[in-house]
Design a protein that fits this description.
Blueprint: H1 5-18, E1 27-29, H2 37-45, H3 55-70, E2 75-83, E3 89-98, E4 101-108, H4 120-123, H5 135-148, E5 152-159, E6 165-171, H6 174-195, H7 210-214, H8 219-225, H9 229-232
Parallel strand pairs: 1-3, 4-5
Antiparallel strand pairs: 2-3, 3-4, 5-6
Bound molecules: iron/sulfur cluster.
The site of iron/sulfur cluster has 13 residues, from helix 2, helix 7 and helix 8.
Length: about 230
């Protein structure tokens, strides 16, 4: 019996799941491209990526939901999708779209600690007056603007304690968007290497940002391959 292509594809999915090699979902989340590309490739290959698993993401989701209920006049949680090569897609969810403008909401806890005022790095964490959007937030909203063809976006930073907020304008940067797409293409090549049974040693890791590695389930792999210092931590 000849079966329609969709049914054949479905059946292949069942066979591969039963044999322990499920089909890799060919999608890359925008939010997964701001840190370690090796982690992103391994998460896709091993099907472990979950954009809302961290407690911060869960608080963020709850607060986004609250905002959606109390503020009218914008569309919230808009899914976006951009075709990459070989059937891969770059996907994400914009917090809100109002007219021609994209909005992203960040809910932050501040230290409110004067003793930290001498450090430029930590000034951003003292209070809302010193807050700035992170490089990651800017490149992510820029990616959404590139996908949706918009020119301006606004990042809202809320103080989780009291929900006072500030707004930061971001203008679309074509070069930054192209660099972001290149990162996605690197991840695709790395997943394809993994599918061929080759480990993509070349794919960029996080340098010395140990805080990213601290919560990464792939530390033992990196320790064995090229980051031996991860073994002893
Ligand atoms: S342990 Fe660090 S370098 Fe290795 S995949 Fe995880 S985040 Fe990347």
């Amino acid at each position: 019996m000849s079966l329609p292509a969709e049914i054949e594809e479905f059946n292949e999915g069942i066979r591969r799941a039963v044999s322990g090699s499920p089909i890799v979902e060919r999608k890359i989340w925008v939010t997964s491209l701001s840190h370690c590309l090796r982690k992103t490739a391994l998460s896709i290959y091993l099907n472990t990526y979950n954009p809302s698993r961290s407690w911060e993401a869960r608080i963020g989701t709850a607060l986004h939901g609250w905002l959606g209920e109390v503020v009218r006049g914008a569309e919230f949680e808009i899914p976006v999708e951009h075709d990459l090569k070989d059937g891969w897609k770059l996907v994400g969810k914009v917090d809100a779209v109002k007219g021609d403008y994209l909005l992203e909401f960040k809910f932050r806890g501040f230290e409110n600690n004067d003793s930290k005022k001498n450090s430029k790095k930590s000034k951003k964490n003292i209070d809302l007056d010193h807050a700035e959007p992170s490089k990651e937030s800017i490149e992510q909203i820029n990616a959404y603007m590139g996908i949706l063809g918009k020119e301006k976006g606004y990042i809202y930073i809320f103080d989780r304690n009291g929900l006072d907020f500030r707004v930061f304008e971001v203008t679309f940067n074509e070069r930054l968007f192209r660099r972001f797409i290149k990162r996605a293409e690197k991840v695709i090549e790395a997943v394809e290497d993994l599918e061929r049974g080759e480990f993509p040693k070349w794919i960029s890791t996080v340098g010395n940002k140990t805080w990213v590695c601290n919560h990464c389930p792939f530390r033992p792999i990196c320790a064995a391959i090229d980051r031996p210092w991860e073994k002893s931590r």
